[in-house]
Amino acid sequence: MIDFGFDKIALIGAVALIVIGPERLPKVARTVGHFVGKAQRYVAEVKAEVNRSIELDELKKMKTQFEDAARNVEQTVHSEFNQHTTDLQRDWDDAATAGLAPAVGTDSLSTPVPEYRHPGKKWRLKRGAIPHWYKQQAGIRTKAQSGAARVARHRPKRWS
Domain extents for the chain? Predict the structure, then answer.
């Protein structure tokens, strides 16, 4: 890029002052500054666009690498699973021909699963086991009271 030092800028300013004149020089300087700013913004936008496209290309390459790695892992797991399945089936068939495996349909290897039973927690009983003095101190209600009764209880008394 062109390197402008102080001496070159001063020389350009002096020539501009002589050629353009002192009346029109501020307006011309403002216009030149405006165009230089536009050019700098344009160059910055182009640089940013180039950087974005480079980053996008890098991300696409990284994405393909990850997809290839995931595909390789999937194929490896699938092949290992198939190999172990065939080995297990072969061992099972060998045991069945030797008479060691149980007949199909019998459940001698599995244990019976117990039926679900609700735990039957007695939270009311536990709540009733709390001493009365502690309930009063902690502010736990011991008797049910309707909303209207609760409001009436806390309403200030009327003066007669």
Answer: 12-98
